[in-house]
Amino acid sequence: MTLDYYYGDQAEQFSFYRIPKLLFTDKRFKDLSAEAKILYGLLLDRMNLSAKNGWLDQEGRVYIVYTVEDIMDALSCASQKAMKLLNELDEKRGLIERKRQGLGKPNLIYVKNFVSAPESKFKNGENQNSGLLKIETQEFPKSKGSNTEKNNTDFNDTESLPFPSFRGGQKRESKGNDAERRAQYRELIIENISYDVLLVDLPYDKEIVEEILELIVDTVCTTKETVRISGDDKPAEVVRSRFLKLDSEHIRFVVSCMKENTTKIKNIRQYLLATLYNASLTMTSYYTALVQHDMAEGRI
Fold first, then answer.
1. Which of 18, 113, 119, 156 might form a disulfide with 162, Cβ 3.0–4.6 angstroms?
2. Based on the number of CB atoms within 10 Å of its own CB, is 150 exposed (0-12), middle (13-18) or buried (19 or more)?
3. Beta-carbon neighbour count of residue 167 at 10 Å?
4. Is-contact 218 178, C-beta < 8 A?
């Protein structure tokens, strides 16, 4: 089989599952198998649709239904392997929780937010947090022909990433916990945007890159319910989700926009917030317009 090369932005034609980089770089997860990390990414992908469909428990926590059979289909593995991977995420690292529904119904799965959890709270062979739901072993699925619980919930736009909820009225965490959470998010964002690489590639824009990093961290860690962007109050959870998806190309785009801007920027913070928030939407159309312009001019 002979395959062609990629040209231009052709790779953007695909949708992707997102697996947090910390699963590969954090020492806590070094002993987690690659397949288990992939499964975690699949479960995160399903979380997005569950949230949009309002699949919340009485405490407002998002849950998903992802059966052993679903895992077998997605990873092309046997049921024993699927169960092993679930147990690896649950019992070994506490990255998920499973709740039995009974009466032949599939288990509910809670995908855990490892970014906000202190290292000491990760499980090592047993559930150490007595306040959590009691987790039972997931039942083995029925034959493929009789599975009536499987939903067609594949979704192209993966918007779920592990981060804590910041709801009004919640008891404020201690300053120590706030500082630890901010440090964890800062580490995650530095990974996401390849911060060290940006500083090397953009030596003359070091200050603005540093300012963008701190602005992203401030925004992601806000305890407010809304964030003002372009004169509108956006839900903080929505803004947080977008900012946690930013990568190095988005930051390069924002820096480029600032350098090409010919009007005076009155409020640099608000300008950056708006540009970062819209970067994923405007960057593609911006570069597409440039390509079309160059084609019209006969440059390519």
1. 113
2. middle
3. 11
4. no
Residue corresponding to tokens 């706030």:
178
Query: Which tokens hold the place of 283?
Result: 């960057």
Type of residue numbered 201: D
Regarding beta strands 108-111 and 226-229, do their DSSP bridges make them parallel or antiparallel, or are they unpaired? unpaired
Per-residue pLDDT of the chain (300 residues; tens, 9 = 90+): 788 887 776 666 677 888 888 899 888 888 999 999 999 999 998 888 888 888 888 888 999 999 988 999 999 999 889 989 999 999 888 999 998 887 768 889 999 987 755 444 444 444 444 343 343 334 444 434 333 344 444 333 434 444 444 444 444 555 667 788 888 888 889 988 989 889 988 988 999 999 999 999 999 999 999 999 988 999 998 899 889 888 888 898 899 888 887 787 888 899 999 999 988 777 654 444 443 444 445 544
Query: What 3-state DSSP class applies to 110?
Result: strand
- Angstrom distance (rounded) from CA 229 to CA 258: 17
> DSSP code of 160?
-
